[in-house]
């Protein structure tokens, strides 16, 4: 029997607000334990939550960017369970009335373009963190750090529309790209700013009834998502083929073994006893606010990519690479404003700039060659002042010193030689020194032409205008 | 006259004229507490040193001419209000060593006006009870008869007024916890409209019902205290941004033309004869003063107690989850692992009534029961709210009993929770409707126990009930009666 996997993803997106969702404490990562806390996020008796308006704005952004309906009225609810990192004994989340519903994302791949439904997006607070082992001030044991408690999260829940691990990864990448583009999440998966749980089931091909699903937790990279889902699909198929039954359970992915293992079964599943949080009034969002947020949205990657292909006439590959991150696209567009020739510019950004960043480990926002300087450099090539080859040398120098390209060219005497007299003189010298090869060329061995070009360029220290060299050399060799 | 016999407005006059100092007044109250509280047990914590320091500061302010109506006035707070640096227990063993790092907003407001805190008052544990018997610190006794309960849950706040241990106190009212003890102890107690006073820093019992309010010797003091604590608080999303009227200015003896509603569902056969007699006399008084009476109906009254015990316990089961022994409060010493630590800490820390309500509420919210219990209760709550709004289309205030009987004897109902719950039958609907109500002294039982009457107002109609209560008070002598200790 052939099986069809069915996958739905729940993604937690940590929002880039300066302060927490229900209090004024900082959300900065890495501070000393419990230094960013107050009565509210410590869950002290008598403390009450007050909603951070920025979180709502970010949720609206996410909703609009994923084609959701923004609810005019949404309600915060308490999710009740006991755990030491949950100071109130409940998490404030949204349940029956979330802020965003009924959206979708389109994913592209070998399957063509496929629309993946987004059931809902809701706002919630994060829990704290347990620290085990050597706890500062406690010696060995376990400690609770509540710096992260009350940090704002969005939970984005997809429909079970994904049919393979690759589709799941494509969806996840797309969502990741969007939230980073929107500026609402730093996208850092290692620090947990973007994390994912996967609901996986399998059913016989042709069936319309989904199989029993397992929820896989703790998959914190694109690679692990693929690994975890593929492992889980295989595990479930093997189980069924051996006559077993998939049970509804929560499983934990172990990145070391690449396997999932049971964490808790259905019987041990929590009854979270959700109910509307009486400390927070229902959230009412005016259509005006939604419109205001909509107007402030940046151009999203899909549209940008389309525009690069259609208006800038860039190849699909270039458009894809240049729009991969908002920062790279912004860099490209800043250059383009000064040097409006998209294709040569794209080559430079995807070539030298990207290589430089990779080698130095810098982010595009910290690129030492500013759009201004890069545009100047390309203009020097077009003006014939330097050759494309010399330009790469100049680029390296700019990377190191941040100097203007024209100054580097002048200081280092890199101006291209386009004086025909000068070039002819060099050609004559080279030909005189290589009589044998001249004879060979004239005898019909045209391959040696390349040798002469190389010699002439070397003799000119690379500064000779290559087009002129070709033209003059050919004339002279043919005698 | 002893200084502890004075009301806020009386003591304020003397302080302003420099006839007495706040330190003298504070000492008088501290001495009074020392002499009577061993019998009454209204206080869990007495803050003598801090009080005298605050009184000295108040005297400096008075000398400098920076006097508010509350400067130098000795007050006390139910132990549900967080007081920075002063132990706050909520009358529970689970918090018996809890020293809060911050102040409740309502206490901040009193402190800013120069009030002097003499101590923290006894109550039912986590405000769950109608008799003050569920306190982990022993029951408070009714100053009018030490064998009787003072009412609850703000029993200490009421008893402290009756025993003259503080000029004024703050209580909280979730289902009658200010008005019922005020009635039983012969003082004035007002539950404001939900959202009128900030709940920030008040330990939550049932968040959608809890409301802070004053307990005082007379109506004028009640208006002063309400004016001080009312108002929007950015730290409480459920507080309402609405101007605070000058409640004192609204007081006057005139009630001519006032339309008072008498809900037929509240004047049922079987009402205690002393309570009935008191209400009848009060109605006569109002008639004499020129008020008009209209019979009204609040048809969903019968469902109020059941509705309350679903909503309040559901919210409580969640509100009390934070007492888990992890970061503050009692932690069990011997525990085998995490779950056992949670279970033992809570088993040891909470009393029987609190456990009962946590279990009821947990059940009401459980998957499969939520719709039948919690959700249905919310629907009935809306109907009850509607009952009141409809009634207020024709009347200005509603007059009812506060409690079905005068104060009962200590121990009489502890083993019969249902009977205990029914003692809040006339006060609970006001909380469910989210509106305001006041209890004023209106009579005395044959056994010499005070009996109050309740005036219920429109949402944010505190001025109307204060005015009606003040007119009644001016026409009667009940508020001048004194418990003999």
Q: What this model shows, in words?
A:
The complex is a heterodimer of chains A (479) and B (485). Chain A has helices at residues 53-65, 165-181, 222-241, 287-296, 301-310, 316-322, 326-338, 342-360, 371-382, 388-401, 405-411, 420-433, 435-442, 449-459, 466-477, and strands at residues 3-14, 69-70, 73-74, 76-80, 90-94, 100-109, 112-125, 129-135, 139-145, 152-158, 194-204, 214-219, 249-254, 259-265, 275-276, 283-284. Chain A is of the alpha+beta class. Chain A has a nine-stranded mixed sheet. Chain A has a three-stranded antiparallel sheet with strand order 5-4-15, with no helix packed on it. In chain A, helix 2 packs antiparallel against helix 3 (222-241). Chain A is elongated and about 95 Å long. The mean pLDDT of chain A is 88. By secondary structure, chain B is an alpha/beta fold. Chain B has a domain at 3-252: Amidase signature (AS) domain (Amidase signature (AS) enzymes, Alpha-Beta Complex). Chain B has helices at 8-16, 22-40, 48-63, 105-112, 155-162, 179-185, 219-229, 273-289, 304-319, 338-349, 352-365, 371-391, 417-422, 428-433, 462-475, and strands spanning 43-46, 74-78, 116-121, 168-173, 188-191, 211-216, 259-263, 292-296, 397-401, 436-444, 450-457. In chain B, strands 1-3-2-4-6-5-10-11-9-7-8 form an eleven-stranded mixed sheet, with helices on both faces. In chain B, strand 2, helix 4 (105-112) and strand 3 (116-121) form a beta-alpha-beta unit. In chain B, helix 9 crosses helix 11. Chain B is globular. In chain B, 61% of the residues are buried. The mean pLDDT of chain B is 95. The interface between A and B is large, with 28 and 44 residues.
